[in-house]
Amino acid sequence: MAEEAQPPPPLTVPRRLADVLTNPAALLFARLMLILPYWVGGLSKLFDLSGAMGAAVRSDLNPAWAFVSLTILAEIGGSLLVIVDRWTWLGAGILGVLTILDTFVVHRFWGADGSLRVEQLRNFLEHIALAAAFLLVAAVRLAHPRDERP
Amino acid sequence: MRSAVPFEARLSGWVRPLLTSSIIYWIALLGLCAAYLQGGFNKATNFAGAIAEMNHFGLAPAAPLAAATIVLELGASALILSGFHRWLGALALAGFTLFATLLANRFWELSGPERFMTANAFFEHLGLIGGFLLVAWHDLRERLAEGVRR
């Protein structure tokens, strides 16, 4: 394709928009948005440990302290890796797996009924979407060479 | 020779073929869109419920807006999954998600456990927006690199 003499057909994307969106800073912004729920989740658990322990006990997670500390570690550690862009795929993988596990513990739509079922199905799918986004983070970082680092 | 390759590079070389395959990428896109496909489908099959939801949020005229939401959710998902102007579909769902969460997840107006749940949902939606921005970033990058209309 690159060897053809004729000029490439015009882009259908508005040029200025494309420039803004393909900026390395835009990628950083996207990653920042994506890890926001995990920052908030990890830090709020850290500042309210007893509340987090209570929630773990209610979800039948024993021993609660182990689940809570592992979750905080995964949320903050995974987010850090994704943001500083070192071992990005690993950080994204940690957050993705955490999201899937969380979904299967907290949003079991198949065990709920009535309007709660619809609500839980939506939550479940939103978590699947977040996990999928982490898969994309890993894929995009692995597919693009290092010199595109922001 | 082998020891000269950094540990991270060796490990990521191992996961790269898996994570950058186009099938995995498409499955991730499907995961990202699943909640919107379900939302659009749900509203389409229960249009009265969709109108009630619009009224609940004080959006008028309810019926046209409900219809527009269905078209947006299903249409943008179709753009993303088909790859036809994928970036446009991704930006549309990012904008829609931002609007929806600013409307439906106003945690700052609540208190107690409800505030906590709603704040969670709010930040999760911001995370989803990050995922869509990532899709747009990747798609536009590829388009600019290829310089072709798709």
Task: Throw out a few tags for this protein.
heterodimer, A: 150 residues, mainly alpha, 6 helices, 73% helix, globular, B: 150 residues, 81% helix
Can you walk me through this structure?
The complex is a heterodimer of chains A (150) and B (150). Chain A has 150 residues and is mainly alpha-helical. In chain A, 73% of the residues lie in helices and 0% in strands. Chain A is built from six helices and no strands. The longest helix of chain A is centred in the last third of the chain and has 29 residues, at 115-143. Chain A is globular. The two termini of chain A are 29 Å apart. With 150 residues, chain B is mainly alpha-helical. Chain B has one domain (28-146). Chain B has six helices and no strands. Chain B has helices at residues 7-19, 22-45, 47-56, 62-82, 86-104, 112-146. In chain B, helix 2 packs antiparallel against helix 4 and helix 4 crosses helix 5. At the A-B interface, helix 2 and helix 6 of A face helix 1, helix 2 and helix 6 of B.
Task: Describe the structure concisely for a colleague.
The complex is a heterodimer of chains A (150) and B (150). Chain A is an all-alpha fold and 150 residues long.
Architecture blueprint of SSEs:
The complex is a heterodimer of chains A (150) and B (150).
Chain A: H1 15-21, H2 24-47, H3 49-58, H4 64-84, H5 88-106, H6 115-143
Helix pairs in contact in A: 2-3, 2-4, 3-4, 4-5, 5-6
Chain B: H1 7-19, H2 22-45, H3 47-56, H4 62-82, H5 86-104, H6 112-146
Helix pairs in contact in B: 2-3, 2-4, 3-4, 4-5, 5-6
Gap from first CA to last CA of chain A:
29 Å
How would the global form of chain B be characterised? Answer: globular
Percent range for helical residues of chain A? over 70%
Counted beta strands of chain A? 0
Order of helices and strands of chain A: HHHHHH
Low-pLDDT parts of chain B are none
By DSSP (H or I, 4+ residues per run), the number of helices of chain A equals 6
The average pLDDT of chain B is 90
Strand content of chain A: under 5%
Oligomer: heterodimer
Query: What's the number of helices of chain B?
Result: 6
Q: Please write the string of helix (H) and strand (E) elements of chain B.
A: HHHHHH
* Percent range of helical residues of chain B: over 70%
Q: Please describe the biggest sheet of chain A, giving its number of strands, its sense, and whether it closes into a barrel.
A: none
Shape of chain A: globular
